[in-house]
UniProtKB/TrEMBL annotation:
Residues 10-218 form the Cation efflux protein transmembrane domain. The chain crosses the membrane at residues 9-30, 77-97, 109-128, 161-183, 189-210. It comes from the Bacteria. Keywords: Membrane, Transmembrane, Transmembrane helix, Transport. It is a multi-pass membrane protein. The keyword Transmembrane applies. It is found in: Membrane. This is Cation diffusion facilitator family transporter. Residues 224-294 form the Cation efflux protein cytoplasmic domain. Its main location: membrane. GO terms for cellular component: membrane. NCBIfam families: CDF.
Length: 309
């Protein structure tokens, strides 16, 4: 994912959520609806999410130091994990609590026109934000399904924004359902049910994002297609007889570490081996530009080296 694409989606979501949060709180004050209050908290949490993602992207761009020789690229994973675990979970916990409270002590929804107007406005605004996230994701998704893209993407921002915007749209639909049923039936319990539905939705999204970002934070290797390109580039170098073994690790979304032991001819000179390694590194970087840290260890091709007498 390009940094500019991710930033564009984040800013679009942040702008929409700030406007929507204000509108939802105003509607909650006029209507007394717990669904609207939960949705207001949801939008505030979403806005916090986007601020954290922007901070993570800024901090990840710092130059490497002696203490962090491989740089700070994985800070983007850390902040995405914080978004998943803390903010989504807080939003879910508040919504579940507020929904239970409303079901236990139902009250009539006053001035429902405020709720309907704000919810329709919010659905339109979130729709534009979701459209931006889809457009930016399609630019890098390739032929992957949406589920595969969320699970395999090494850049956390777009999957987070996609699930966040999807959750926001579904949450608005749940809130609209709860308020509508409360108005139609005159029973405020429905408002609480809509709020509980929002809480369950946020909890599910929190679990999914936490699992995916945890995997990135712990450390993931290159995707199969990227690894295949690196292998092909390495094996195409004239001095490389074969790859004995190879490991890859993402130091950040756009930075990959490649470590490999390669077999060379037993009668190659040190100068020839050094030139071969330089050429192999050049070919790897040409095939996969994100392979920025490369360590190649030469070894004798023991499968072809003549046995000692």
């Amino acid at each position: 994912m390009s940094a500019s694409g991710g930033t564009k989606a984040i800013i679009a979501a942040l702008t929409a959520n700030l406007a929507i949060a204000v509108a939802k709180f105003v509607a909650a004050a006029f209507t007394g609806s717990s669904s609207m209050l939960a949705e207001g908290i949801h939008s505030v949490a979403d806005s916090g999410n986007q601020v954290l993602l922007l901070i993570g992207g800024k901090r990840a761009a710092r130059a490497s130091t002696k203490e962090h020789p491989f740089g700070y690229g994985r800070e983007r994973y850390f902040y995405a994990f914080v978004v998943a675990v803390v903010l989504f979970t807080i939003g879910a916990a508040f919504s579940l609590y507020e929904g239970w409270h409303k079901i236990s002590e139902p009250t009539e929804v006053a001035s429902p026109i405020w709720a309907f107007g704000v919810l329709i406005f919010a659905i339109i605004a979130e729709g534009f934000s979701f459209r931006t996230a889809i457009k930016e994701s399609n630019a890098v998704r390739g032929k992957q399904s949406w589920v595969a893209f969320v699970r395999r993407s090494k850049s956390p921002e777009l999957p987070v924004i996609l699930l966040e915007d999807l959750g926001a749209l579904l949450g608005l639909i749940f809130a609209l359902f709860g308020v509508t049923m409360a108005v139609v039936t005159g029973d405020g319990i429905w408002d609480g049910i809509g709020t509980m539905m929002i809480g369950v939705l946020l909890a599910i999204i929190a679990v999914v994002l936490a699992m995916e970002t945890k995997s990135l934070l712990v450390g993931e290797g290159a995707s199969p297609d990227v690894e295949a390109r690196i292998r092909a580039a390495l094996e195409s170098a004239p001095e490389v007889e074969r790859i004995i073994h190879m490991r890859t690790l993402h130091l950040g979304p756009e930075e990959l570490l490649v470590a490999a032991k390669i077999a060379v001819e037993h009668n190659d000179t040190a100068a020839e081996v050094a030139r071969g390694i330089d050429e192999a590194e050049r070919r790897i970087r040409e095939a996969e530009p994100i392979a920025r840290v490369i360590y190649l260890e030469p070894d004798l091709d023991r499968l072809r080296t003549p046995a000692a007498n």
